Amino acid sequence: MRCVILRISAIIPAFNEEGRIEGVLDTIVTANIFSQIIVVDDGSTDNTSQIAGRYPIELIALPYNKGKAEAVKQGLSACNGEIIVLLDADLIGLTKEHILHLVKPIQNKETEMTIGIFKGGRLLTDMAQKIAPNLSGQRAFNSYLAEEIIMMDTSGYSIEVALKKLIRKRGIKTKWVILQNISHVTKEEKLGFLKGTQWRFKMYRDIIKYWFN
Ligand SMILES: O=c1ccn([C@@H]2O[C@H](COP(=O)(O)OP(=O)(O)O)[C@@H](O)[C@H]2O)c(=O)[nH]1
Ligand SMILES: O=C(O)[C@@H](COP(=O)(O)O)O[C@H]1O[C@H](CO)[C@@H](O)[C@H](O)[C@H]1O
């Protein structure tokens, strides 16, 4: 049987992640899984671009903060892999195995999209993902879905909820995969309680607005 090696692209949207992106890129680069790694610096005002630029990646630096949805779409427009993996820039404890868990079911043609669910990392982040698994930023999918995702009328934090609607509308075969011992840095930890809570409510607003649109 002929074995076809599929190219795999990673997209990492990043807004002011200078303290966290290094850990994520260390794993992504050394995992030796990706033929293309795209970091989209979404108008950061810190050293996110400079730090990302030390790695063998393609950097897209947006001139101002356009929101996660736009950052992901910009990454998708530059992708050349047959499989695309989305990973947040603030993950704690990302390993090669986590990435393989996301990618393998697509390579094996078991499904068209995987959604990674945190387990055993941190109680609070685990709980959030249990309540709203469809909001997870960790995914892999076939690149034939990219064009349709780029065309979605989504902004801010509504990319995941838009994907949920797309999955339903198009009947995209989706599989949840458990990602053990991984979590992310919360908004309150990044920005402090007040600003973090404001950003959290902005995120909820984006999601709810899209959902009822
Ligand atoms: O305007 C934004 C907000 C967030 N992000 C990135 O999107 C991912 C998820 O965002 P965030 O960490 O704020 O969400 P959380 O995981 O806290 O829900 C992270 O890599 C962020 O750096 C982005 O590119 N632009
Ligand atoms: O899990 C969640 O409820 C949120 C919020 O995470 P935190 O409360 O900041 O740990 O995080 C996710 O949702 C966002 C919106 O869909 C995604 O963009 C993030 O990637 C995802 O981590």
TrEMBL record:
Homology family: Belongs to the glycosyltransferase 2 family.
Database matches in CDD domains: DPM_DPG-synthase_like (cd04179)
EC code: 2.4.1.266
Cofactor dependency: Mg(2+)
A molecular function GO annotation: glycosyltransferase activity
Broadest EC class assigned to this enzyme: transferase
InterPro entries linked to this entry: Glyco_trans_2-like, Glycosyltransferase_2, Nucleotide-diphossugar_trans
Catalytic activity: (2R)-3-phosphoglycerate + UDP-alpha-D-glucose = (2R)-2-O-(alpha-D-glucopyranosyl)-3-phospho-glycerate + UDP + H(+); an NDP-alpha-D-glucose + (2R)-3-phosphoglycerate = (2R)-2-O-(alpha-D-glucopyranosyl)-3-phospho-glycerate + a ribonucleoside 5'-diphosphate + H(+)
Residue intervals of the Glycosyltransferase 2-like domain: 9-118
This protein's UniProt keywords: Glycosyltransferase, Magnesium, Transferase
Protein name: Glucosyl-3-phosphoglycerate synthase
